[in-house]
Records
---
Amino acid sequence: MKLTPAFGKTRASLLLLALITGIVGCSKEKTDDSQAVAESKSAGFAYVTSQDAGVSVIDLATMEVVKQFDVKAAGPRGLSLTDDGKKLIVATRENESISVIDTATGEVLQQIPVGKNPEFVRVSGNFAYISSEPSAKGGPPPKPGAEEEDDDDEEKIPAKIAVVDLAAGKKVREITGGPETEGIEFSADGSKLVITNEADNTVTVHDIASGDLLKTIHTHEQGDRPRGIKVSPDGNNYLATLEYGNKFIVLDKDFNLVRTVETGQTPYGIAYDRSGERIFVATNKDKVLQVFNAKTYEKVKDIPTGNRCWHFTFTPDDKQILLACGKSDAVFVIDAEKLEVTKQIEVKNMPWGIVTYPKAMGSIESK
């Protein structure tokens, strides 16, 4: 059939319209995909260590686990991020090292020996600080209130805080702490390390540059086994949980003891919210996240949670709290305003620590 010129032009116009529509549709689809990725990136990610596995990555836009990182070693516990979020530093107990992980690919870039039984990790600038427990015997500790058995034949080994130059990729020096160092916090001005020492019931303050011991705070009269440690957003106070005192202590900016506050049983992780108006404490045996007024220290609420909940973090927007509960194989999601659990995210193999990027307030990291 012979086509008229008018029909040919119409057919060409229709084909051109279809082609444009297709291009626009593809562009819209790509735009939608890009927007979804951008939204996910803007919400950020949470990184969770599991003692019997590796690292789970939670997309904070969906509150679902989207990746697993193999840390290439057994016993991951403490973790921290570089300031740009490109590297995740994880303490791996069994090989006495830290794993440096590319957060974009999940690849282990390097494993750096740091010392026996590494536990807590904090990063400041190009340096990572890792606590250790060289004298820890393993097994469950004695019950709260019970006297610990002393072995006169075995001296408690002073622990070392390993200082790792991340740019050079090696441990460059050590700071001597107490036996079984646990939590690490930076002073408000960034010049000091404040650490908790479980085995001799002390909180010690050290000059970062020289490593010198500046002050020792003994906690036995208030309670034993100091674990969590956190500075207030305004830098005027430091808090330390006493696992076997069922309390946290409050130190002033010069590290003087100013008061003790009763908590539930066996408190560990502790943090302020970003405003400094509330204090949050994870109490293991009571299975609650406790909330206190940071000015009066009156308890605001107990939030029922799970089993062996130790570490937690706010989301970067401060709207939710993520609490790692080891023996529940879950991360509990808590509405930070309503103070209610809204969801449980399955994270198996004994979740231990949790941090986010962008960085947020929490029992490990601080914004």
Note: The chain is about 10% helix and 50% strand.
---
Amino acid sequence: MALTNGNRSRRNTYTQKRKSAADPPPRSRRSGGNRRKSAEPARKSSRPRLKLPVVHVNGRGIVRVLRWTTALAIVAVFFYGAGTGLIKAYNFCTTSDYFAITEITVTGNSQVKTDDILKVCGLRKGENSLLVNVHAAEQKLVDNPWIEKVSIRRELPGTFTISITERVPLFCARKDNALYYVNAGGEIIAPVTTENFRSLPVLEIGPGGDEALPMVAEFIEEFRHAGFPFDISQISWIRLSAGSGFELYWETRRLRLSIGVENWKDNLKRIASVVTDIEKRKETVMVTSIRAADGQVWMTKATEQ
């Protein structure tokens, strides 16, 4: 019995030892696995993570959004209604007979006819006054060479007043075998025609006469108040030159007058006094030319010529 028990106990012991040597304990297997996992570096993901903002919605926010939405809706409805009303009002005003043109007044025109002015600017009785572009009508009239300034005033419901400032011609000048009206500054206004003919002296520019051209307007004004026994309209031509100064030809008396440019105002007064004196004595027909310069006056008689 003892031997049998002893052998049995040895076999059991050996079997346990072999089993323990072949199989490692569970703790050592788990700990080895953890060491390998911790030794490997953690892999980072290459895709960026999208972080959405956190929105907190509460009862007050919802009420506030509803208020703003309602207010915007009310404003939109208001503007829509106002725009629709304005369109309807505009259509009514531009088609109503209440705003039809009933009266057109034109003032200040002497060279340009009233019918031509109305035709150019496009104003007609019966048309709607609100549809008239006043600025465009003024620009069309200013393109006329005779018109210097223009002003169109609209008075509702249907009255228009057109004020014209025309260019005033003082002379007629020859250019390219044609005759033109010229203003005080020597600027050409328009060609002379049978329809716009006016009896004006012809202006001629002689050698060196360009320097005296800016003084022509003042010379004509002084001439009218110098006391001559004839009007400026009776002068057939005016010539400007450096040697003779201002030359005028009195056609009815066939008398030539010459005024020196230097101190021309004093010379003009002296020659006006002499012409008035010989006209009173009926001796004008005996004189062909009179010259005033350097404070003196010379006369040339017909027998001396």
Note: The chain has seven helices and twelve strands.
---
Amino acid sequence: MNSQLVFRNIGRFLLLVLLQVLVFNNIYLGGYINPCIYVLFIAMLPTTTGRIPMMLIAFFTGLCVDISTNMLGFHTFACTAVAYLRGIWLDRIIIHDNDEGIEMPSLYSGSYQQFALYLFLLLLAFNLIYHLLLVFSLRDFFGILLSALLSTVVTWILAILYQTLLLHKSRNNIKA
């Protein structure tokens, strides 16, 4: 991995975590929707990142958000689980159908539909795990499911907007 890619990932980490901590953690629409945009950082890490480094990066990312919200463990666990699932879904959804290598999964690397599905599944897994941990009961299972699904859809839309506004289509095999 070249140094330019490392600095771009550090910049993306700082931007997304700061957006999460300063803006999105203060948004809780209708008691159900809480966007977690910083999960996009984990979804967009380079494909050459190994499973252990990926899980350590995800752990650290979730820990940063947990420390800022005084909810130690919820974001950390959900991010680590998503990092584990990322490798599986990345291979099956994006890399499987792509003949040329993808340096970093994004809206503009490979098929739009493949990335959209990959991102939606990661966000859904994150939100299901996070909301189940938050409530820690299956009493209101449908409320948890509704909250996770609505949060996933809103976060997915915000993530697609983020990529559309900040990444340029002219950079195929994304280097941003």
Note: The chain has six helices and no strands.
